[in-house]
Each structure stands twice: as structure tokens, then as C-alpha cells.
Amino acid sequence: MVFSNYGVFKDGENMNLIEAITTRRSVREYLNKDIDSHVLEQILRAALWTPSGKNGQPWRFKIVTGKEKEAISKLSVYGSWMKNAACFVVVFLDKSHSYHYIKNVQSCGAFIQNIMLAAHSLNIGSCWIGEILSQSKNVNKLLGIADNMELIGIVTLGYYDVKSITTRKAFEEFELR
Ligand SMILES: Cc1cc2nc3c(=O)[nH]c(=O)nc-3n(C[C@H](O)[C@H](O)[C@H](O)COP(=O)(O)O)c2cc1C
Question: Which end of the chain is more exposed for a tag (fewer CB within 10 A), N or C?
């Protein structure tokens, strides 16, 4: 197998998991096209199988469209393109889960990644937005979400023509010897 920093596989239907992982890229330009609610549900139902510490499943999410999407976009420095996504999945940690804070946050991160991979397998683009966390109080308020839900990140979702061209460092740089 020849490894490439650009990803080895093509996009397309029926991609296997290695293809999905290596061809996903952040998408920051979206087509003006809605995502069917059944498709969205399929993505989120898949992500519910994310592992979590003691199977606590501490993530919660809200799907945001329309005026709320516009208002949240205004809170981020990336709002100018975020608002063009078909929807946001706003991901929270339910802090009433007292298990272990770091593990709970890690589980929510894995949940976000699985949303992105599931979306990609259906040819839907996404971008993980962390540049909103400083606005967490405002996001909760705007969405009417209680304070015991901690904002972890936003996933923008939408159909696309263009995805970013990113690479990765060489394999050898990661392996500690
Ligand atoms: C925790 C986290 C926070 C991120 N926050 C942002 C963000 O606020 N805005 C943005 O455009 N991309 C954000 N990204 C996406 C990264 O910039 C992107 O994943 C990285 O540059 C690699 O590019 P790729 O996803 O195309 O492979 C974030 C990614 C992660 C994992």
C-alpha cells in the first residue's frame, strides 16, 4: 500500500471506513441544499454508537437551522461561511454525568468525529467549529439550553463541491521510539 498525505482513496458511495477516514476533509463552502431529515437522523443515530467511559453517553445535541443558525454564526469569527451550512449540530456535555470530566469530554469529541465520518460516508461535508467556545454562555442562552449543558463544539453540515486540501505530517513524525 502506498501512503499519501493527500489521502489514498476517492470519494464516493459505499466507501469503507479507512476510505472515509482518509478522504474526509473540512468543508467550509456549502451548496444551498437542505439535508433530508431522515439522512440527518441516520448520521446522528450512527454517531450514538460512539464509545464513552462506562458507556455514559454524556453527549447531547441540538440541530440548528434558520434564524438560530444565523444568530449563532454571528457569534463566531467563522460566521461568514458557517451560516451557509444546511444545519449545525451543536454538541453539549451533560454535566450531570459526574463520571470523569476529561473522559466525558473525550467521549463528546469522539461523538463529533463520528458525526463527521458518518456524514462524509453519505457525501455530506462538515467542519468542527471550536472557535465558539468563548461564546458558550451566549449559545446556551440563544438556544434556551440549561447551564448544566456545556458547549463542546459545533459541527457544520451540508452538501458541497469543494473541500479543503490539507495534508498530514509524515508517519515517522508521530511514532515515538
Ligand atoms: C477541536 C477542533 C476545533 C476546530 N475548530 C475549528 C474552527 O473553529 N474553525 C474551523 O474552520 N475549523 C476548525 N477545526 C477544523 C480544523 O481546522 C481541521 O480539522 C484541520 O485544519 C485539519 O483539516 P481537515 O479537517 O481538512 O483534515 C477544528 C478542528 C478540531 C478537531
Answer: C
Edge-to-edge strand list for the sheet holding 125-129: 59-64, 87-94, 149-158, 125-129
- Residue 131 maps to a domain: yes
Whose CA is closest to atom 15 on ligand 1? 128
CA distance 44 to 60: 11
pTM (2 decimals)? 0.92
Residue 121 maps to a domain: yes
20 found inside a domain: no
Is residue 177 one of the residues assigned to a domain? no
Distance CA 90, CA 85 (A): 13
pLDDT in tens, 77-135: 999 999 999 999 999 999 997 789 999 999 999 999 999 999 999 999 999 999 999 99
Between the CA of 175 and the centroid of ligand 1 the distance, in Å, is 22
Q: What digits encode the pLDDT tens for the residues 34-62?
A: 999 999 999 999 999 999 999 999 999 99
Distance 128 CA to ligand 1 centre (A): 5
Q: For the chain, what is the domain count?
A: 1
Q: Is 130 in the pocket of ligand 1 (CB under 6 A)?
A: yes
CATH at residue 61 = 3.40.109.10
